[in-house]
Design brief:
Length: about 230
Amino acid sequence: MNQIEIRNLNKVFKTKQHALHALNDVSLTIEKGEMVAIMGTSGSGKTTLLHILGCIDHPSDGSYRLNEMAIEQQSPKALAHIRNRDLGFVMQDFALIDHYSVQKNVLLPLKYMKETKLRKERAARLPALLEKLHIGQKQHEKVMNLSGGQKQRVAIARALINEPDIILADEPTGALDQKTSYEIIQLMRSINQEGKTVIIVTHDPSIAAHCQRIVRIEDGKIIEDGANVV
């Protein structure tokens, strides 16, 4: 089953002087449970593609179906709901609130849930989730006091708290040392092995090597898409 299907996708950023084609006629399908690396140099279009997959940005034209839903037909309110319910985001700079505790950061996505019972059920999972990510003892610690690796584990916990089907990670190891990067990518693999689709944007071949499939993008076009032996 194709969980993600994009067809003939284009993204053009227009200025007064010229138009920049960030994505050029991109077509891609990703099945449920895949772990995919999207690789490319700086400016290749890989982050633009991730933002469109994450319903953060809109394509200039083309189609995007997520779980059989036509994303381009959704209202801004519906897209916000999809981002909160179906997608978890992990960023290079962690995107945490430094003066909040670990607990408060991780529980932030639940603030936007209307279902009170479900919100309470998911909040109750927090201690077990933090233990699983080896930061259980940091629950009440302020994020500003954590190491880079610990911050990224908090970001992963926040991405998982709503139990989304898809995790989107933009250079998740870019700010980490080699040892910590390895630990984080192993966490990503274990999340994938639990059945979640994991899509990682990276320029690092050693990170991409842990994914089942590598999609290479340059100048806004997919130039290679193939299975990887993990």
